[in-house]
Automatic annotation (TrEMBL):
<dbReference type="InterPro" id="IPR007867">
    <property type="entry name" value="GMC_OxRtase_C"/>
</dbReference>
<comment type="similarity">
    <text>Belongs to the GMC oxidoreductase family.</text>
</comment>
<keyword id="KW-0285">Flavoprotein</keyword>
<dbReference type="Pfam" id="PF05199">
    <property type="entry name" value="GMC_oxred_C"/>
</dbReference>
<feature type="domain" description="Glucose-methanol-choline oxidoreductase N-terminal">
    <location>
        <begin position="68"/>
        <end position="215"/>
    </location>
</feature>
<dbReference type="Pfam" id="PF00732">
    <property type="entry name" value="GMC_oxred_N"/>
</dbReference>
<keyword id="KW-0732">Signal</keyword>
<feature type="domain" description="Glucose-methanol-choline oxidoreductase C-terminal">
    <location>
        <begin position="321"/>
        <end position="457"/>
    </location>
</feature>
<dbReference type="InterPro" id="IPR012132">
    <property type="entry name" value="GMC_OxRdtase"/>
</dbReference>
<protein>
    <submittedName>
        <fullName>Uncharacterized protein</fullName>
    </submittedName>
</protein>
<dbReference type="InterPro" id="IPR000172">
    <property type="entry name" value="GMC_OxRdtase_N"/>
</dbReference>
<keyword id="KW-0274">FAD</keyword>
<dbReference type="InterPro" id="IPR036188">
    <property type="entry name" value="FAD/NAD-bd_sf"/>
</dbReference>
Length: 470
């Protein structure tokens, strides 16, 4: 459950650019804290490239038998698999230790780090068991309709309440909820809205388009070691004892997910994935693919955990995908689920990059450090996926996503005729609404995107304070 931050890189670039040390509230949202087991994490992360913000981040707090094998293999293979002590350094490729938003063996999040400390503020009300059903036009301005009223309801009831914002509405309903709400409010592609009998108020064809996510394939390897977590998952007593240990002391296997190590890799320069296209990654220090090394059978997708045997899973992902899907309305009922078309692996780049990642997983686990105690052997459909064509087919059959959707209300230049928000995060063609969530990313970041969401949120806070002279 990793989160990766580019925040310190951002801060360093600020300092180099002569902008001075960033104030805490401007840039830094996380702090590196000791792992749950208190082990010396020298060489697993670099405190010098971390900030001092409220979200707690740590390296894994429970060592796994495969950790040393991953590091040894990195040292042996080098090149695209060289060791990277900390992905926050500004160089985002290589093999390293996972960093998770965990402090003291517990999840740290926007809720615990930002919201809980201010819950008792008199100017903050939190409505639970309530859902915004639409934004209501409250006036007209030269920039377009003004939306300063949110309508609220509860499932199973037709009763509605209205809340009026004195300054503006900040919409943070996420990559699925935000476009759904905009569409329900008459903000989106006019023709599609009209066909659903919704009166179009702002014609923004991009609402709900540009949905990006990181496709993920679980690659299973049967191993001869009997020390993997498979028996914890299978055996109720063992599972209960492990959970009990976490509940009593925030120690043991359950202090984080059992994927302690990972690799971010760039494709080889001659990869067929890159033929005839411009490189979709942000730059030479950004990755195309990711490998997460899990000490057991990670039950992703439709393949159930086998009743016997020990396993290592390598989760392979494409982190600079070019496929784009969509979120559209299935119904005008605000409580009905929208239609989500993830459209993953729908481009040649994405499928070829995934094939390379699957080959990389096999190369990595074929290295000598694994041959003494683990002796990994491809398991299930992976065992039969011998050629690149087989691997592409295996990927199509077994892909899920990393749950990193982004981009359904993308940012664009103020005077462009595409996009949904401008660089101030304000809804285009309207007044009174700002969007602050992962839907505004124009492209999906090549990392687990929770960190970048915090960056956008911190930036938005500054934009809002600045707009009102606060
Ligand atoms: C299963 C899963 C695992 C993940 N694991 C990781 C990980 O390990 N590392 C990582 O970096 N990222 C991870 N992510 C991604 C990360 O959680 C998201 O990128 C991030 O939470 C997005 O933040 P957001 O503010 O855009 O939206 P969200 O966090 O989704 O917040 C949107 C909120 O709006 C609420 N909402 C929606 N519609 C309405 C409405 N109409 N009225 C009122 N409220 C509404 C939702 O209930 C939700 O609470 C994971 C995501 C999932 C789903």
């Amino acid at each position: 459950d990793p989160m990766t931050f580019g925040i310190v890189g951002l801060a360093l670039r600020r300092i180099k650019a002569g902008l001075g040390t960033p104030s805490k509230s401007t840039i830094l949202s996380s702090s590196l804290v000791p792992p749950a087991d208190g082990h010396d994490f020298t060489g697993q992360a670099n405190p010098a490239v971390h900030g001092n913000g409220p979200v707690e981040v740590s390296v894994p707090g429970f060592s796994l038998p495969i950790d040393d094998l991953v590091v040894s293999t990195s040292n042996q293979l080098g090149g695209r698999f060289s060791f990277n002590v900390d992905f926050n350094s500004g160089k985002f490729v290589g093999v390293g230790f996972m960093q998770s938003s965990i402090g003291g063996g517990e999840r740290s999040s926007a809720a615990t780090a930002y919201l809980e400390p201010v819950e008792s503020r008199r100017n903050l009300d939190i409505l639970i068991n309530a859902q915004v059903t639409k934004l209501i036009q409250s006036g007209t301005s030269k920039s377009g309709p003004i939306f300063q009223v949110a309508e609220i309801g509860q499932p199973g009831s037709s009763k509605r309440w209205q809340v009026m914002a004195l300054k503006e509405v900040i919409l943070s309903a996420g990559v699925i909820g935000t476009p759904q709400l905009l569409l329900l409010s008459g903000i989106g592609p006019s023709a599609a809205l009209t066909s659903l009998q919704i009166t179009p108020l702002v014609d923004l064809p991009d609402v709900g388009t540009n949905l990006a996510d990181h496709p993920l394939v679980p690659n299973y390897f049967q191993v001869s070691s009997n020390g993997t977590w498979d028996d914890v998952l299978r055996n109720g007593d063992n599972f209960g004892a492990t959970l009990g240990l976490w509940q009593a002391s925030r120690q043991g296997l359950f202090v984080n997910s059992p994927g302690n190590t990972l690799a971010y890799t760039r494709l080889p320069a001659n990869s067929p994935a890159l033929a005839g296209i411009s490189d979709p990654a942000a730059g030479s220090r950004s990755a195309h693919t990711e490998l997460i090394f899990v000490d057991g059978f990670a039950p992703f997708g439709s393949v159930p955990q086998p009743a016997t045997g020990n396993f290592v899973t390598v989760l392979t992902a494409v982190v600079s995908p070019t496929s784009r899907g969509s979120v559209t309305l299935a119904s005008t009922d605000p409580f009905a689920k929208p239609l989500i078309n993830p459209s993953i692996l729908s481009t040649n780049f994405d499928i070829q990059a995934m094939v390379q990642a699957i080959k990389d997983a096999q190369t990595f686990l074929n290295a000598t450090p694994w041959q003494k105690d683990f002796k990994p052997v491809p398991f299930g459909d992976l065992a039969n996926a011998r050629t690149d064509t087989d691997k592409a087919s295996f990927a199509r059959q077994n892909s899920v996503t990393v749950n990193h959707p982004a981009g359904t209300a993308r940012m664009s230049p103020a005077n462009s005729n595409w996009g949904v928000v401008d660089s101030q995060l304000k809804l285009k063609g309207a007044q009174g609404v700002r969007i602050v969530d992962a839907s505004v990313f124009p492209v999906i970041p090549e990392c687990h995107i929770q960190g970048p969401v915090y960056i956008v949120a911190e930036r938005a806070a500054d934009l809002i304070k600045s707009a009102y002279g606060l």
